[in-house]
Amino acid sequence: MKNAQTLQETLSRIDGKGYKAYKDLQGTYTFDRFTLFIDHVQGDPFAQPSRLRVRVPRASSGFKGCFTRSTSRTIALCDYLTRRFSQTARRIAKGVRGTGKGGLILIDTPSQEILPRTSMEVTESHVEARFFLGLPAQGRRIASRDAEAMLLSELPAIVDEALFFHETQHAALTAHVESCEDADALRSQLAELKRVAFVAEGALLARASGIDSHPLRQGAIPFSSPASLRIKVALPNGGTISGMGIPEGVTLIVGGGFHGKSTLLNALELGIYNHIPGDGRERVVTRSDALKIRASDGRSITGTDISPFINNLPFGRSTTAFHTENASGSTSQAAGICEGIEAGARLLLLDEDTSATNFMIRDEKMQKLVASENEPITPFIDRVKELFAIHGVSTILVMGGSGDYFATADHIIQMTDYTPENVTEKAHTIAREHTNGRVIESAGPLPPITHRRPLDRSIPMEERRGRVKINTYGLYEMVLGTTRIVFDDVEQIVEPSQTRALAEAVRLAAPLMDGTRTLADVLDQVMTTISQQGLESLSDILRGDLAAFRKLELAAVINRARTLKT
What we know:
Blueprint: E1 2-3, H1 4-14, E2 27-30, E3 35-40, E4 50-57, H2 58-61, H3 71-92, E5 105-106, E6 113-114, E7 120-122, E8 126-133, E9 137-138, E10 141-142, H4 144-162, H5 170-188, H6 190-193, E11 195-200, E12 207-209, E13 212-215, E14 230-235, E15 239-247, E16 250-255, H7 261-269, E17 274-275, E18 284-286, E19 290-293, E20 301-304, E21 322-324, H8 329-342, E22 347-351, H9 357-360, H10 364-369, H11 384-391, E23 394-398, E24 411-416, E25 419-422, H12 424-433, E26 463-464, E27 467-468, E28 470-473, E29 477-480, E30 483-486, H13 496-509, H14 519-533, H15 551-559
Parallel strand pairs: 1-2, 16-23, 16-24, 19-22, 22-23
Antiparallel strand pairs: 2-3, 3-4, 4-8, 5-8, 6-17, 7-8, 9-10, 11-15, 11-18, 12-13, 14-15, 20-21, 24-25, 26-27, 28-29, 29-30
């Protein structure tokens, strides 16, 4: 068995050689308190850093069974250790050394959300961190002294601090796992309570900025629930808490500009995830099948039945299996809803600011000017109640510009200075007292859900040296072979590691699309594989940069592939 001394001797032997000599390091090494696995060595100092793992025996790590007695706690422990490893590496590692990415010690850095990830594994036998290390070079020559400092000095220090339990972290770790477990317990009670979302008293919803998901520290207003919507919920660790429970059905969020409507909706759309302690949204939860819908001009649509919302197009064009390479705002929004319901969404989240106006409403004056036989769109206002009555799909809608929605809503919440008020009765009274000549526009009853069957080669992938070529770019873009998919309207993706996992999942789904299975069947088969075999099963190699996603995001990515055929 190789050990730390063997590693040092190998580094001395290859010092100054060409960079590819680093390949000699691949293998397993025993250290005093952990085992090091060098799984893949980069071929160039500018390439993706090398893939490494460190494994600590669970018995000596100090992390007791209380931290892993539930799935929620295990996920939270892995999340906590990933964050600790990342923070410690940034402090201890000296940073870039020499050429390219040399000197970097990196692990998949989490966002404010707690997600299952492949960056950390905790089992009964061990604690394992999967990370990246940039092997240093001068030009394209091996810099062994720097590599020795990284592998034999900095890395052991990081492991000692991050992967072993220290009493000083007991309170923070306990809060982390208990908060995650409470959020899961809270979400699991929503259906029984006939609620679609919950916002706890005292929650801090505002974010630092539109590009910074950290909580606003100064001037943030703690959430206070309207008494009429306040419910109490018992948690396994946090006792009984109270907050606003949003009922099933159709809920409007109204109010003036800059009073917190969209902030509340944003908290709800990300309430599908658990959040770290101190985020302010730890106890803001939404049912896990909630889907944010927005208009997306220019996206492709393949075979989607958008007839619930759009019919009688010019030239007799079909909308029961609608195709376009360049969707309008209204057709993209109609497709997003129909595709989401096909994939299992049972709560829709919409904001008028990111919706197509003609999809959301046609008021009385427009109805009088443009006759219904010349308007192919059945506006959302005339379908939203049917969606709940027939398909059990609830809706939460931010609306500041059209009071016509008052009559359709079951519940209406007004935001004033970031404080909610239940104005349902008042709004309904206004709707009764101020009737207008607007008529309901509908092309017949709401049809059943249409399930499409993707055809063979729907997402072709070039093979290179026997492997599929996959690249991802940020949150919202991937390239699979020659197939480029952009999905920047899918707003509930929060980490690039989810996008990387989604790309691997599409690769797994592609051969299942053979014309015999529905898209829902394909999605279920991929998600079942992940559930049974873990996120690691998505990739041919063991990698630490994948994070969990939902079936709804996988469906959204596949639906935006311009090569899709059904």
